Recover the amino acids of this structure.
């Protein structure tokens, strides 16, 4: 009995000694000028329990758990060998974004590019050398991240992409309710995902779009949904289906580029391929990178389209207001055969439909969980706080999106919120498209693709829940790397063609669009050195 008690005492003494040693190490290495330390009940280990759940709500939830620090502009989290800084204040977010050469997103992407895209050492060296050269260059030098995406800006290249999107949507809409049927029952997320995936990628890859093949779409979603497993230890053991899907995508894009099918695609894919090949990228790596690029193209676009469609369709006031706004830009005519023709210039969706765009942004505001990652490349003081070299900086969009400046009920859907003068003044709080050097270069194209899809649904169809009432699904299954989570459960709906649409031929036009970008962040986030 005495021996047993002695063992317990020794074990407790060892634990206490280890705890005190970790405590001294934690606080002894914590600079007084760093942001307040949280999650330190068990030094270095407490944060691992929260992070291990892999849910994007972990970082925003810290403000709720540490009420005494709720108004603090930032926190420090310490795990073994790493520091995380969580930024809650827009003012600090803005300061960090202005220092893109100190707080680098490129360093984050370089760290994961090999695992996510399976790039060769040659390709990784190209990316790293470009990033290093840019970091050492004079102000005004183009960010290498931006160089490959500049053809996505509004102009003829993007107009060409939107015409391809419209062509696909017009064709698809004829089958949303098959001829001879009064209605069609679908699962809303599956339907939106299929239609926006094919339409978006038709706009990019052209008539030889690989994503028209259902097996390619299936491989892509297996790949995209498995990113956390892909970057975890031992992916060859725990992520075999994801690795197989990634290999399939790379093989498909190898054929696409070898057959020079991209030369018949958009200006964006032509420029992107030429950009990387001219810098020494092996063609094998170009295909692997393009497989990974699907994550940037689709992983956020399709769930955003779902939530925008869900919120607008489930809110009668939003649905009716957006529909009336779109129809106000539709012109009616009769062709030589006596058939009714309805025409819509899609540029009006951008310039003349503030409620539609407001509802779209509001859905993004409510559901975006982006973390705004950066890596500190040197010690730097921001707003009086020391952020140390080698640390990872998180800027959770959800914190800004629940700011009281959005109004009395920031957690509720208000389709007209962004149409008010006050909301437009506070648009800098809108973080769904990122900001600074990571402001999404494809935001205008993605926005127009989604609002064109929703507009086509609203003016031609009625969509009702099969259950009789709308039940908003949750997103508890979302991973920590998710920027826009999809729903945990799908919503079964019935689609009916509107009576006004019977016997109508639709013409959707894309007029020249120069310099009318849909804005994500209104102020210049750059540091004046070519972010």
């Amino acid at each position: 009995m005495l021996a047993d008690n002695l063992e317990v005492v020794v074990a407790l003494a060892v634990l206490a000694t280890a705890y005190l040693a970790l405590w001294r190490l934690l606080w002894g290495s914590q600079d007084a000028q760093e942001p307040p330390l949280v999650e330190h009940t068990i030094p270095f280990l407490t944060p691992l329990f929260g992070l291990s759940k892999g849910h994007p709500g972990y970082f925003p939830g810290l403000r709720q758990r540490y009420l005494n620090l709720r108004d603090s502009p930032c926190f420090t989290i310490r795990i073994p060998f790493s520091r995380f800084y969580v930024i809650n204040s827009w003012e600090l977010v803005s300061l960090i974004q202005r220092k893109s050469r100190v707080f680098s997103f490129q360093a984050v992407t370089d760290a994961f590019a090999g695992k996510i895209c399976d790039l060769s050492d040659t390709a990784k060296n190209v990316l790293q050398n470009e990033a290093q050269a840019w970091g050492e260059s004079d102000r005004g030098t183009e960010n290498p991240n931006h160089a490959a995406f500049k053809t996505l800006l509004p102009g003829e290249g993007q107009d060409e992409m939107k015409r391809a999107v419209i062509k696909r949507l017009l064709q698809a809409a004829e089958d949303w309710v098959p001829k001879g049927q009064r209605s069609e029952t679908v699962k809303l997320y599956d339907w939106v995902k299929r239609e926006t995936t094919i339409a978006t990628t038709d706009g990019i890859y052209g008539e030889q779009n690989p994503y028209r093949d259902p097996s390619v779409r299936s491989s892509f979603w297996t790949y995209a949904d498995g990113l956390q497993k892909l970057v975890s230890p031992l992916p060859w053991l725990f992520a075999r289906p994801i690795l197989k899907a990634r290999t399939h995508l790379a093989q498909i894009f190898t054929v696409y580029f070898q057959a020079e099918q991209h030369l018949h695609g958009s200006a964006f894919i032509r420029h992107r391929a030429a950009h990387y090949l001219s810098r020494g990228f092996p063609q094998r790596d170009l295909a692997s990178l393009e497989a990974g690029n699907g994550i940037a193209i689709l992983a956020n676009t399709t769930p955003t389209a779902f939530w925008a469609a869900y919120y607008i369709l489930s809110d009668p006031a939003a649905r009716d207001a957006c529909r009336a706004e779109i129809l106000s830009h539709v012109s009616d005519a009769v062709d030589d055969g006596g058939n009714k023709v309805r025409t819509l210039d899609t540029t009006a969706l951008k310039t003349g439909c503030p409620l539609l765009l407001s509802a779209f942004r509001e859905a993004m505001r409510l559901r975006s969980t982006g973390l705004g990652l950066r890596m500190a490349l040197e010690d730097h003081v921001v707003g009086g706080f020391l952020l140390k070299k080698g640390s990872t900086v998180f800027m959770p969009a959800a914190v800004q999106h629940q700011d009281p400046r959005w109004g009395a009920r920031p957690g509720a859907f208000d389709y007209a919120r962004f149409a008010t003068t006050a909301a437009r003044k506070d648009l800098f709080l809108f973080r769904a498209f990122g900001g600074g050097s990571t402001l999404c270069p494809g935001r205008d194209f993605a926005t127009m693709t989604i609002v064109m899809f929703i507009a086509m649904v609203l003016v031609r169809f009625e969509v009702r829940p099969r259950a009789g009432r709308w039940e908003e699904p949750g997103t508890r299954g979302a991973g920590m790397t998710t920027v826009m989570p999809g729903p945990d459960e799908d919503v079964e709906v019935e689609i009916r063609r509107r009576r006004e649409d019977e016997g109508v031929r639709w013409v959707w036009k894309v007029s020249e669009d120069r310099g009318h970008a849909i804005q994500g962040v209104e102020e210049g986030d750059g540091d004046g050195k070519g972010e």
